[in-house]
Each structure stands twice: as C-alpha cells, then as structure tokens.
Request: fold
Amino acid sequence: MIREYKTIEEVAGPLMLVKQVDGVKYDELGEIELPSGEVRRCRVLEVDGRNVLVQLFDSAAGLNLAESRVRFMGHGVELAVSESMLGRVMNGMGKPIDKGVAMPQEKTLDINGTPINPAARFYPSEFIETGISTIDGLNTLVRGQKLPIFSGSGLPHANLAAQIARQAKVRGTDERFAVVFAAIGITFEEADFFISDFKKTGAIDRTVLFINLASDPAIERITTPRMALTAAEYLAFECDMHVLVIMTDITNYAEALREVSAARKEVPGRRGYPGYLYTDLATMYERAGRKAGSNGSITMIPILSMPEDDKTHPIPDLTGYITEGQIILSRELYRKGYLPPVDVLPSLSRLKDKGIGAGKTREDHAGTMNQLFSSYARGKEAKELMVVLGEAALTPIDRLYAKFADAFEAEYVSQGFYESRTIEQTLDLGWKLLSILPKSELKRIKPELVAKYYPKD
Amino acid sequence: MVEGRILKVSGPLVIAQGMREANMFDVVRVGEQRLIGEIIEMHGDRASIQVYEETAGLGRGDRVTSTGAPLSVELGPGLITSIYDGIQRPLEAIFKKYGANIQRGIDEPALDREKEWFFTPAVSYGQEVVGGDVYGYVEETPVIRHKIMVPPGKEGRIAEIHAGKFTVTAPIGKLQLEDGRIEPITLMQKWPVRISRPYREKLPPVEPLISGQRVIDALFPLAKGGTACVPGPFGSGKTVVQHQLAKWSDVDLVVYIGCGERGNEMTDVLREFPELTDPKTGRSLMDRTILIANTSDMPVAAREASVYTGITIAEYYRDMGLSVAVIADSTSRWAEALREMSGRLEEMPGEEGYPAYLTSRLAQFYERAGKVTCLGSDGRIGTLSAIGAVSPQGGDISEPVTQATLRIVKVFWGLDSTLAYRRHFPAINWLNSYSLYRDRLNDWFSENVAKDWMPKTNELARILQQESELQEIVKLVGADALSPADRMTMETAQSIREDFLQQNAFDGDDSYTALPKMYALMNLIFSFDKKARLAIEEGADVADIAALPVRERIGRAKAVPVRDYAQTYAEIEAQIDTELSALTQGGAQ
Reply:
C-alpha cells in the first residue's frame, strides 16, 4: 500500500521534513508530486517518531508546502537491470535519456548493494595489458582491482581513462567485457569526449552510460555512482562479464555529500567533509573485485581531481586508503609534453605483485620494475642537486643517474595517447634505459636475469 | 525479556522506547530481520542502540528485543584458522550457507556446533579447581594445544570428567560449586568483549618479539607483551609491514584484525597464509592464525566492536600461557567508527570531531596487552603483544589518533612516503622511529645472539644519524667538500640502508632473516667499513673503494639462503681483503 502525505513541514536546501507519517522506513524512496503534476524523487535520511527527514534529489524550486504530496514507495532506491542496458544512456537516477525503446527489466536491484564476504573473494591476479608503459611496467593493473587516477584541473585524465578503456585487454582470453561509465557532475564537453571516443572505437555497444552533468541536480550525484556500480555488479556477477567501471569525477560526488551533511548540521570532519566520508567512499570502491560463484569481475577506475593538486586533501587521501593504489598525474611532465603524464614515483599498484612474473608477464618484470623505480628516484635527486650545485658537483655515477632520469621520462613515460605497447616492448624498453647504468648498479635484479636481459652491444 | 519499539532511525543509530528494564551494553535484536545491536546509552525508557548491520528498511514501531547479555565472544576449540566478522560471525560458514555477499540478520554460531574434538582430561574426580586451572587438552591444530580452562571466577570440585570426542557444547564433565550446585563443563566458554579477561599479575616484558625484519629487530625491537604502532600515509607499506609481522613473528598465535580496511587484503591473508610455513614450527602459518575481518564496506558499528572481539580472543589464548600477537589494521578506522557513532549521538566533539573519550578508549585497548602470570594454580606465563596500524590523514602524524596512540605505545615505527617512493621497503624511517624496549631487551640479545649486539646496533643508528647531518652539508656545498673519512661514512650509511635495512617481503630468502644471519650481515658491513678506513689511511681513494666489485656482493648478501650464508659471507670477507689490498698496493706503486 502506498501512502500519500500532504504534511511537508519544512524545506531547506536539499532537505525536507515531513510530519505525521506512519510506517515509513529508513532509506526508503519517496516521490513528491508538485501541484503542476511534476514528480520529483527523495530518500529518507532519518526517521524520528512520526517525523521523517528526507533528502531531495532535485532542486526544491517550485515546491509548495501546502499543495505538494509525498508518496513513500516501500522500497529503497532501485535500478532496473538487464543485459539490454548495454549501449544505453541513462541519467543519474537510472532513467534512460537516449530516446531508445523502453528497456525490458529482468529485475530491479537496490543500489546500495551488500558487502562481499571477504571469505568469498578471489584475489585479483590476472594481468590486464593497458598498452601504457607506466601502468603495465610499473603500476600493473589486474582484473578486479580498483585503481584511481588522481588528477588536477587542466590535466588530461580523461584522455588517459579513455586510452585505458580503448586498449585494455587480458591476453589469451576471449571473454565478454563491458564498460560502465558514470559521469558525475562533469561538463558536457568532458562527457562528450568519452562518448565520442567510445563511438569511434565501437565500444559504445558494450557500454552503459550514466550521465549526471554539471547542470543536473547536484544531489543526484550521490546516487549516480551507485547506479553505475549496481549495473556493473549485474553484468559482472550475473552475466559473467568483465566490467571496467570509469567514474569521473569523485570530487563532485564528495561535494554533494558534503552539501547534504552541512544541511543536516552534522559535526564536520576535515575541510567540512562529513566524518563518514571514508566509510561512504569505501562502500562504493569495495564493490570492485572478483568473487566465488561468478566468472565476471569489476575493475574500477575512479577519477578525481585534487583541489590545488594536493594529495593530502581529504578526497584523494581517503580514496588512497581504500583503493589498491593510485595513478597520479604530474603537471610538470604535462608541461614538458610527456603524455600520458604519469607521475611515476608516487603512483602505485598494490596488486601488481600477484599479476606479474613468469607465466603472467615475464620473469624479469618484478626486478626491473623495482630497479626502474629506485634508479629514477635517485636520478631525480641527482638532478635536483645539479640544479643547486651544477653538474660538476655530481659524482660520475650520479651523472649517469641524471641522464637515466631524463631518458626515462622522454622514452618510457612519454608515449602519447594513441600508442599501445605490448608488455614485452615495455620491458625491453626498460632494459634499454637501464643499460645507461653499469651492471653493478642493478642490485634489485637477480644476477642471472641481468646476464640474460642486459642489452649486449 | 525486555521488548521495546523503535522511535528513531539515523544510520547505524536506532533509538527505541520501552527499554527501561534493559541493561547498558545489552545485545538487542532489532526489527523483523532481527539485526544485531548493542545498547550504548539509556535515557529514561529510551535506549540508544548501535546496530551492527545495515539499517535500511527499519522504521518507527519496529520491535526491539533485548537478549539480556552483553556482547560476548565464544571461546573454545575451532577458533584458529577461522575468519570472523567484527562481532564474531564465522564468514567461511556464512559464505557456504548464504552465498558470496553478506545478507542481513544472519545468525550463525561462532564455533562449529557439529565438529567433535578429542578431549584429554588433566584433572581427576574430586580434585579442587579454581578459575584458570586446566581441565584438560584438545589438539586444536598441529601446533596449538588448546587448554580447556576453568572460567575465571569459578571454583569447585570436579564431580565428573570424561575423555573422548565432544562437540563444543556437549558436557565433558560436571563441576560441583562451593554452594553445592552442580554445573556441566563444556569445551566452550563465553566472555564479554568489553571487559578484559583477568590475570593474576602483570610482569615487565623482557623478551623480544623476533620478527625477522632487520630494521625492526636490530633498531626498533618490540618486546613480547609490548605495544607498537605503525603510522604512515597510504602507499607507504603499512599493510605489508603488518602482514610480515603476522607471518614471521615468533609468537604462538596471531590474531589479525582487519578493521575497516580492504576486502582483498583479508582475502590475500586467507589465501596466502595456508601456503606459508612458520619458520618456528615448520607447519602452515594458518595453523596459528585467527582472522577478524570487518572490511570498510561492512557496517561501521561492527568495526567498533571488531578490535574488542579480536583482543578478547587473544587474551583467551594468552591465558593458556601462550605468546599471542594482536595486529590491528587500522586503528584509525576504528577511531572513525567511534567518531561516527559519537556524531550520531550528538555528543560534543573533541579534536577534529573525534569524541573526547578517544584517548581513554585507545589506552584501554593497548593496556590489555602485556606479559602476565595467568590465573590458575600452575603460575604459567602468557604474553599478549599489540601492534596497531594508524592511517593519519594526509600522512600528518600530528592528527589526534596518532598523537593519542603515541602517548600509549612504546614502539613507534614511522613509515615515510619518500622512502616508499624510492622503493625503500620496509619504509620505516630510521631517524624518527623509536623503541623504548631496547634497553630492557639488551640482556636477552647479549645472552642469546651476541655479546656486542647492542653496541653494534647502536653503531648502525649512529652512522645513519651522522649521514643525515652530512647530507645537509652535501646539499649546500657538494660531496667534494667532505673529508675522505666522512665520505666513507656516507658510503657505509648507504650500504646500511640498501644492504641491511631494505628487505624484500616478496623474496623467499629475504622475507625473513634469522638473528644469527642478521648479526653476520651487520658484521659484514662493519667489517668492510673498518677495512676500507684502513685502506684510506694508506692512501686509497674513496671513489675507488666505492666502485669495488665486492660491494655488489655485499648488496646481494641479504638474499643468500640461510643454509649458505656462513660460507658465502666468509667468501665475501676474503674478497674484501683481496680487493682492498690490491687497491692499496696499486696506490703505493
């Protein structure tokens, strides 16, 4: 039985108080019918006696306390799912907006999902070849991983994400895969960039898009990523597909969350973000993975722009604590024209160790990776010293390291958005660069591998 | 049984009325799905309840019933090798019964009710027993002999005791209490998690917890029964350090609490530990591990409970006279759970929104660690060491959780992101980390490893300190300005950093270093330093010394398998002599 109330008492910001209700449940979905007949949606945030506090997904404009009616639907926010979602465009609340045919519904799912039992997870270990050296060689992505891109305004994170979506494959398999794309409060141009890129490569037929643009209601952004993840879970765990989820921009999501929290007058954590931001982000990010009873997987690439390029800002900071690594973009490399400008040293993939090595990539992968990292770090230090004291102050070996660092940026990092390198090409390139250094410096690589792979000239 | 009705629902907090008769900290069942919750505040007949499961779908008027008992854990055989959630529900059994995702309102007993254990009595009819005395034994895993103990506070005479196979709830005998009542004895007992299990006496910790991690054992050792914390920004290798400690610590049992962390990390432990062998016993590491997993996507209130669940289980094994380590990853997530509940209760916040009682709660947790004389007539000694990861926001250790933790714990392993960027792992910063146990452990090390262990390790620290001072000079005026002796110090410090402190957790031979090998490796580096200094006095150039081929062999010495190291190190030692003398003689000609 759906009950209707005309007892809206207060509207303030994204919140609304409804009095004298009965049987309304926490987290229940509601519909508000305006005098004009327009219907907007809302969600119960708190039940307190016979009062309920609800959060509006749309603006409150035009809402009339006396005349508007609220209906509570008896369930939470849900998404109708089916395989025919592929190729469709939906808004942030999961309604198709592409004028296509009505979608058959196989079932509806609560968008909050349920936590995966850690005892039922499979540890992600299948190497994904993205064709990008800085990722494949140094920050290897595996199926079921959540690896965010930390970017800043004006940096080409969209191009990098599109490149990954375009080039990513698991070698030697021919399984079905899909892309779920969630645009969270980004501009039309940015969303259009992704859509036209997907169209160009034909990926659009295997893609589900959830679009909440900058001009759409801000609070709707709270549901957009969850809609996308619910679709992804259905495709991955019920249709056995390998799903790549791209969500951009998480910063807009967190801001919507802050808006609601501030309206509720909650005690803020750092920078005004709610104290539960970590838990809230975790309930999204943790939906990536692989689990027993299904062959599918969800690999997640959230994109977030760091305000002032500050990695310690709460959003990137808390994200980094949840995700399995991060790809950080560097303004300095971008200015030098090195694309994709992946800042190698602070970037990290936590799951790389299980995805690389003999049988997966190549036996020398782990050793060369560590060696490239530490040599590049030392090279950069040497270059800093060089700036202060001049080249003459460096020891001969440090001069070689400085040379290595330059070559590494110019050849290894810089590859452009349209070049795809195989893992062998990436590893060989690594060896070519390491050969700038004498063999005795390669302490991180096993001697027998140095003997086998060190280029002979 | 007290029954009330829901008045208010706000996230994990539910307020119910009609609860006047309920006790504080009673476990209650909420709503039709019988979600598990705990009373954390009482106002008249209104109880504030933190619910350990997702509360969506609850509404006013839903039924709340009190179980009349506080949140407790089941203690008995079958705990080891298990994985539990924050309120001790068995995740493996839940997975088998309910599928890959955790549904709500699941009610599964923590200990398997079907499984039978073979019990061997250690007491006989008519014997007087007190709390802590041992009824008998169960071989729980090949490495842990589980003592079935008289629960604390119980006292009486054995009226009946049997050997044989029993389930955890079946009576194995009868105990006649002092007042004449007769109670059945079972393999299982219960204990409320928020109350620490009693012991007879606390003792100062004097024995090190050997972790096989060079930077820890040599520079910042932890004592058995001690407390340590590992703060670090994300990506600095906190979890790897914690996993290494869980794998290689020379304790009898490890309780690993994944508190608000990644699901895949728990899966990793779950899949990897059964494959690894414990260097001490030669058996699977899982045979001495208990996992508590309350991952970040699981309900936040259960995260608050998870550290108590973990440490209560650990105390139970400590009471058997075992050495136990509790590893909590991460206490910051636990503090955040406290903060969230505190916010919902509309309490006045302290620093950064954390509740004012944050420090005292943290202190209570760490104070449950220690070396103790256990209850029982045999005076056995057990230790409980607590290691907590801290995840400071932005890596800034001035934040409240890190600061509150540092006031309590005695060992600080500070992780450093710049070291991590250089792939120097474990990224424990040798300049700001400390261990207050070093002096206390001195005697043990000089008796069991080497007389000069302490002076040698002090020397390591001294050289590293000196390096950081010299580096300041180099940054200003360049390396050429240093005297040859100082340049040699820089070389040796680099060798200490790269060849000793760096340790590859993923390399079979390097992952764990036994103390004798650690000592030999330290000596190898010092020996080179000493001999090189003599060579410098005889006119050798530091740059030439630095370029000697033997340096590379020293660099690889840490990964030499433990059975070969004595011989290999002797060879390297000989090579040092030949190469250095070639250098000085070459210089003389």
User: Anything to note?
Assistant: Chain B is about 35% helix and 25% strand. Chain B has a mean pLDDT of 92.
